[in-house]
């Protein structure tokens, strides 16, 4: 018996839901944290040591707050950081309130205005892997079908 249009749509929906469930169950759903660079002082002079007591994970957000036209944020490589040069800038932000999502690796940021970088308006930070997966309500570990699905108890 041939499937009608409705049967094909239902089959496609079922396959899509199964793929989504597999991605959710096998993927790593991690929470992220937002860090305001320079804390309450914001992005400005003497932020070079600000990252030292912090651990950054992939997916975390760096929030740069500063006075627009007085500062900017330039993502550079190690050479740009060490020599306070923006010649080979990776990206430049100048909104006064920038959010940068971190990937794993080492990141360098400097201010490209005048000689600001030379008075420690520059910082480097290492980013490690993603944070621990989110645990849904009703369990103390990542939920699989035997434990529940998205926090719903299947027992």
TrEMBL record:
Gene3D superfamilies for this protein: Cupredoxins - blue copper proteins
Coiled coil: none
GO cellular component entries: plasma membrane
SUPFAM superfamilies: Cupredoxins
Organism of derivation: Dendrobium nobile
Residues passing through the membrane, by range: 6-25
Domain Phytocyanin span(s) in chain numbering: 33-129
Gene Ontology molecular function, alphabetical: electron transfer activity; metal ion binding
Keyword list, A-Z: Copper, Disulfide bond, Membrane, Metal-binding, Transmembrane, Transmembrane helix
Superkingdom, natural source: Eukaryota
Annotated protein name in UniProt: Plantacyanin
InterPro entries recorded: Cupredoxin (IPR008972), Phytocyanin-like (IPR039391), Phytocyanin_dom (IPR003245)
